[in-house]
Amino acid sequence: MKLYKYEEIAADIEGKISGGQYLPGHKLPSVRALKERYHTSLSTIQSAYDD
Fold first, then answer.
1. What are the percentages of helix, strand and coil residues in the chain, rounded to 5?
2. Confidence at residue 24, expressed as pLDDT on a 0 to 100 scale
3. Residues 6, 44: contact at Cβ < 8 Å?
């Protein structure tokens, strides 16, 4: 089953958390920074964070 874009981004963020790229106590990248990285809308990134 095909994932929505926000689900793909959420899975990528979860993988980076699990992999230790994003450490406990540190801030996650801003919505605007991820918007540029993934070439998508702010609302898509926000949906990924909400997920």
1. 60, 0, 40
2. 87
3. yes
